[in-house]
Specification:
567 residues; alpha/beta; Immunoglobulin-like; TIM Barrel; 3 domains; 8-stranded parallel β-barrel; 7-stranded mixed beta sheet; 22% helix; flat
């Protein structure tokens, strides 16, 4: 039977268009970058992408290009040319200008410009983070005990004076019946408790707060609760079909919760939002509404070059998060996205690559002893090329240092460890600097609290922040060598500027709240070209020379020592 035109599909059969490309030979190239499938690495905005390619046959005459979408508009690609350094060796140095998630592959010719080859390996993957992410010194403000927004504004200069450059706000949306900031009544309004008497719009005082933060160089971080909403919220009253059903509950709505110590904790004041609603129109409405919520608060964050915090990301709907983050990246490409995402390292690596999460919340408070904390910090450095972690002393959900470590002054050595032995992202929660004996309970509408100053803690935090801000060595992964001899209570580390110079910092922190120690440090295996070393005390501002093999460090309980070394 002959085929008729109407019987065939109503489109033209596409033509194959050759690009005159071939697949390169295996074993021809040595590359300075990973070509493992699904692997990735990270750079900061305005940092140089440095790549090198070496042909095994040194006599090869070649042209080498990087085929990539780096710094390109969406959907476009470009070619960057390598420079020949010596026979068979080609290099590329390119300053990446825009944040994003990019891929690249080698393209080359071997003397004959009519024949071009694709590198036979997978595309490589690089994530470019906002430049501001290098240095995060963040103060978590507890709105419920801090008065009105005008009071917060008056508090900002003090936060800046302590050396912080970012302020994290727990959710400030209108509170539901439980008065938890994570149980919102309405996602697009500020709770009346925080508003001044003359602020009828709800955002007049808030605008002044955002402007003042920007003037002081304080980046604002807004906390987003995407998984659930208050049981008495406007969403529940007006769109109950948006909530996951649960016939075991009297009201037919499923409660949110979390796993803790192998048991499920149900939050009676929160219901789960139904991101998998079977009706596509309702599902689209839910997704659009919650994306608008995220975009709404992200707008205020980006006015200060700030960030958002995704609460309980490990419990979030993955499809929605993928869609949301794609839109956020398109609208606010320089927005820093931090996630509370407690899971295994492999899952974090996978999601960091897929979602381009800039910063993950660490859990160093679960490592109270020197040995465990030392190993955890080494892990942070070891994985730092792929994952960046925010290391606060504690969080608003945990206890304060007095509860966790036995004494409020333990905040000083703990902060020295997280700030100066980490990779540049750290912070404290309001109350820590005052030496509060118990954590501030953030649930409930409360009166503004008056705190008593603790001079030892505030001066310690101020000094640590000052040192953290003065050198790039504290903002790099892999630049740490522990020199404390695995001491049971004291952490001691060398942060070297680079491997070719004997310049850097020595940091010591005594985690013991009861006992002081005198430890001897021998750096002769690390500093081999001199017998003495110049040391400048960065807290008390005096300098001296010390034998490289016999440095004596005396530490009182909760004491710290910070030295700049080298010429």
């Amino acid at each position: 039977m002959a085929l008729t035109q109407s019987f065939l599909p109503p489109f033209k059969i596409p033509e194959l268009i050759s690009r005159n490309m071939r697949i390169g030979k295996e074993g021809l190239l040595r590359r300075s970058f990973s070509v493992v499938p699904d692997d990735f690495f990270r750079l900061y905005q305005n940092e140089d992408l440095l790549l090198e390619v070496e042909f095994q046959d040194k006599e090869t005459s070649a042209q080498v290009f990087l085929y990539t979408n780096i710094d390109c508009p969406r959907g476009e690609w470009r070619e960057l040319k390598f420079t020949q350094e010596k026979s068979g060796v080609y290099s590329l140095s390119y300053k990446v200008r825009f944040c994003g998630s990019y891929q690249f592959k080698l393209k080359y010719s071997l003397g004959d410009e009519n024949n071009w080859y694709w590198d036979r390996v997978s595309f490589s993957h690089v994530i470019v983070d906002p430049e501001a992410l290098r240095d995060i010194r963040m103060y978590t403000l507890i709105p419920s005990v801090s008065g009105t927004i005008n009071d917060w504004t008056e508090h900002l200069p003090r936060i800046a004076d302590l050396g912080f450059n970012a302020v994290h706000l727990l959710p400030i949306t209108r509170l539901d019946v439980s008065e938890s900031p994570y149980a919102a009544f309405d996602l697009f309004s500020i709770d009346d408790t925080y508003l001044g008497k003359e602020d009828r719009s709800g955002f007049a005082d808030f605008e002044k707060f955002v402007d003042r933060a920007a003037q002081l160089g304080l980046r604002l971080c807004f906390d987003l609760a995407l998984n659930n909403i208050g049981i008495g919220s406007t969403m529940v009253r007006m769109c109950p079909e948006w909530i996951v059903p649960d016939k075991s509950e009297k009201d037919g709505m499923k409660r949110a919760g979390c796993w803790h110590m192998n048991s499920w904790l149900k939050w009676g004041d929160l219901v789960k939002i139904s991101y998998e609603h079977p009706n596509p129109d309702i599902r689209n409405d839910i997704w659009d509404y919650m994306k608008k919520y995220a975009l709404f608060w992200s707008h205020f964050a980006q006015l200060t070059g700030g960030m958002i915090r995704l609460d309980n990301l490990h419990s979030s709907h993955e499809g929605f998060i993928t869609d949301l983050l794609g839109e956020l990246r398109g609208v606010y490409p320089n927005l820093i996205i931090m996630a509370e995402f407690f899971t295994d390292s492999n899952t974090m690596l996978k999601k960091a690559a897929e979602w381009q999460i800039n910063l993950f919340l660490a859990n160093q408070w679960e490592h109270p002893y020197a040995c465990d904390l030392r190993n955890y910090l080494l892990y942070i450095h070891d994985i730092g090329r792929k994952l960046r972690f925010y290391l606060p002393i504690t969080t608003h959900d945990t206890g304060v240092p007095a509860q966790l470590y036995g004494k409020a002054e333990a905040a000083v050595p703990r902060y020295a460890a997280t700030a100066l032995m980490g990779t540049g992202q750290t912070g404290i929660v309001q109350g820590v600097e005052y030496g509060c004996p118990e954590k501030i309970h953030f649930i409930g509408r409360k009166k503004k609290c008056a705190f008593r100053e603790n001079g030892y803690i505030t001066e310690g935090i101020r000094n640590i922040n000052r040192v953290l801000a003065e050198s790039s060595v504290f903002h790099k992964d892999g630049t740490i060598e522990f020199i404390d001899g695995d001491h049971g209570a004291v952490l001691g580390a060398l942060r070297r500027i680079d491997n070719e110079h004997d310049k850097g910092y020595l940091i010591f922190a005594n985690l013991d709240v009861h006992n002081g120690y005198s430890i001897k440090v021998d750096l002769s295996s690390l500093i081999t070209n001199k017998d003495t070393i110049w040391m400048e005390n960065r807290i008390h501002d005096f300098a001296f020379d010390s034998p490289v093999n016999d440095i004596i460090i005396d530490l009182e309980p909760c004491g710290i020592r910070i030295y700049r070394i080298g010429e």
